[in-house]
């Protein structure tokens, strides 16, 4: 299966970055690709075999979906892997680099959106995460 990788470097400590990435209280503030969308609710059970669910919706209520999966790997402050509801695999690695944390996210592509749309969407969410962490 073809994969795409997106990445960023976030200024801040690994504890804060991990908390913002995994705590639903924070997830709802950054988990969307464009300003016209939002993440009104999120749940997250951070254990292998457990699951997460992030509701992503257009702010005007015209459309939305549940982004959900089951964890297959969990190494706190280091790496996460999960399988989405449709069977695609995702991995995320967090690496401390000086005063920053490098986040590298690799995901198996789906066949609905173009590769460019998928890369841009996932990168936009990662960029929102960086912006959220660095402004709080």
Automatic annotation (TrEMBL):
Lineage of producing organism: Bacteria, Pseudomonadati, Bacteroidota, Flavobacteriia, Flavobacteriales
Entry-linked InterPro entries: ASHA1/2-like_C, START-like_dom_sf
Domain Activator of Hsp90 ATPase homologue 1/2-like C-terminal, first and last residues per copy: 14-134
Pfam families in UniProt: AHSA1
Similarity annotation: Belongs to the AHA1 family.
Matches recorded under SUPFAM superfamilies: Bet v1-like
CDD domains the record matches: SRPBCC_CalC_Aha1-like_4
Organism field: Pelagihabitans pacificus
Entry superkingdom: Bacteria
The protein's name in its UniProt record: ATPase
């Amino acid at each position: 299966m073809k994969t795409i990788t997106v990445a960023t470097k976030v200024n801040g400590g690994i504890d804060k970055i991990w908390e913002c990435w995994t705590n639903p209280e924070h997830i709802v503030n950054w988990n969307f690709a464009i300003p016209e969308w939002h993440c009104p609710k999120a749940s997250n059970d951070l254990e292998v075999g457990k699951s997460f669910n992030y509701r992503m919706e257009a702010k005007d209520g015209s459309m939305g979906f549940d982004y959900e999966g089951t964890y297959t790997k969990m190494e706190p402050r280091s790496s996460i892997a999960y399988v989405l509801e449709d069977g695609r695999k995702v991995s995320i690695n967090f690496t401390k680099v000086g005063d920053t944390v490098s986040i590298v996210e690799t995901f198996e592509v789906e066949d609905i959106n173009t590769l460019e749309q998928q890369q841009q969407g996932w990168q936009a969410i990662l960029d929102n995460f960086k912006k959220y962490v660095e402004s709080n």
